[in-house]
Automatic annotation (TrEMBL):
One of its GO terms (molecular function) is copper ion binding. GO terms for biological process: dopamine catabolic process; norepinephrine biosynthetic process; octopamine biosynthetic process. Coiled coil: none annotated. It comes from Sitophilus oryzae. It comes from the Eukaryota. The keyword Metal-binding applies. Its cofactor is Cu(2+). Residues 81-199 form the DOMON domain. This is MOXD1 homolog 1.
Amino acid sequence: MTYYYNQLPYYLLVLFFFLSTKADDLLDQYVKHVELVNKFRDYDHSLDHHKFNSEKSSKRLRTKRESDIVWTHSVALDSEGFIVLRWQPRHQEILFRIEAKTLGYIGLGFSPNGGMEGADIVIGWVDDKDHKAMLLDCHGVPKSQGSAPVRDIIDNYTLMKGEQNGTHTILEFRRVLDTCDVNDYVLSGDTVRIIWALHKNDPRSETDMVYHEDRRGVQSVHLLGPPPLPKQSSDFTRHWDVELKNFKIPNNMDTVYWCKVFKAPTLNVKHHITGFEPIIGKNHSNMVHHMIMHECELPGNYNSAIWEKYANEDGQLCYNNMPLAWEQCLTPLVAWAIGSKGENFPNHVGLPLASKKNSYFMLEVHFDNPQMKSISDTSGLRLFYSNKLRENEGGILITGVAPSTLHFIPPFQREYKTAGYCSLGCTKEMFPKEGVNVVSVMLHSHLAGRKLKLRHIRGGRELPPLAEDEHYDFNYQQSRALSQDTTILPGDGLITECTYSTEGRNRPTLGGYSTREEMCLAFVLHYPRTELAGCYSIPPVRYFFENLGVKEFYGKNMSQVEAALLEGKMETEYSPATITQKPFESRPGDEMSPEANLRAIMALKNAKEYSIEGETSDQSVFEKLIIKEPSEFRNKTFMSHLQNIPYNETILTKKMEEYFYNGLHMTFCRKRDDSLAIKETIENLPRFEKYQNKENIQCSYKSKRAYTSSASMSKVLQFSNLVFSIIFSIMIRRKLT
């Protein structure tokens, strides 16, 4: 009876309500109450408590929902394929299916950073004795509160099915995208880090979890978006493997860019590339950061013998004293980055292959070797191609910030934004009247990147972003297929926005090619193919120095410093020039034309901390610049000055962000033949009305229910029956008298 006394306030409230209600209304409500109770008694209590009897309940479930769900997405969460996650996104929810090689419990979580703390976790199993399935909604807590997940007060997961055979456990469940529960992770189009764990045994009870030991892992995925396209398998499809075999990574370089020329298969007619995937050899080193396949734009009178020779050689360091002829291999064809599974193009888009009798391509592979290990690696790309040409011929456009030291990110920042601008003038000059249609986008930054976005500007208004990721993962750079082709018209602008976090760094981070430096780029697959290959921006040189408080250097006025930087010749009274060419997959300027020679962008590659040949930051160009004015910085190198700026003053760093983001940009519009389409210009980022997303995910209060045991629910029913019986008796007596 203690339970009923605890519910006395509720009883009195209900009693008051019914005593103030007409007898006829009360009788109707009592009938409805009895019907509700009967429905609950007929319902399988174990389902509401997330217990599923696969043998007895499967038939009943088939009458309420389709048994054959089409799982549109899937991923193996481990390298052996012991745990596979399948899912189907719907309007405001996602259906999940886990298949795991275990007869014990399965843990699956959505984590903001790949760890358990703060993760939204479900734990499920099928009981070995009664074959009932269990699913618990939990969340991770700080280690100071224990290592085991804690049960949520509100249960927002619905178990649909649970079964196991002799080797595997299978669980199916659903959840709305946003439950408005502080302990649940909001599922969106951003990258989500899925953590998982397996155990060979079931928990002893719901509150007594056994530790999963080493059977755990993390895998990033894109949960939302169109289903991935399958490989085209037909008699018309072949593949071409482009790989470095047993490449010996040097142990004296922390970053290596290696280039090798390949001759395309001998084809009598043009073919279309329909997709690609990475080749991960048995001795894959896990040091491959990215790979880019470049098309060589050769003139009609090229020397075929010398190109045959290049194709038969092992290759060499990219852009470092490499043959001048290789400068013609700068048009990106396909791009792969760490974590990507490759891409299969839509059926109406193909990339050209072997439009000439003899075609050559250059594979660029970036190896990241921070521990200076000596190791062999076999990696490359497998290109799928067909002679059955597709309706549209596509191409890759690279846009963003041209990698250089002028890309500046201060330390101690929780969030700091930079932007690369593809100007209205460039798209107006290069795109056809009907525009180009974007199929997919790969966003790219390095270790400090946290949020990336490709913004789309038209007529003073911002349109929905072409691609966006609020939870960017450096180790998962999978291209994002658009749900529908999106048109960029002539005169549209593009802004590649990158948000970085440098809270754990005490030195400025500069742009460059090493993973310790930063990039901000977007690789845009589009059709029809145009002559435009790259569209970038950087801060103008004078503007860069003045915004960082420097007015004058020794030995040269600011105009001379600017010209020297852009022409790649830096000499001071204190140190001679050292010119070292640096790699970049698609250079922002045109070193071949007289116009570009006036303001050679090659110099930008010298103004950075980059170690392809063992350089240190002390050998950077910025160390060669000695400040004369203002007097408080006099006789310091510019690099030393950068180290001494008080970056922990928020007002100061926010002004820096504003100046470099919305201020002046030097823009470059580079064609596939490595010439500039229009002269580089200095312009402000255009003003525009910002895009407001009016289709935010809505919270679902329907799914929110406190978990409760069958015994507790039985007590509730007993109490409600008692209340209604008393009220019913009272009202009958009132009516008779």
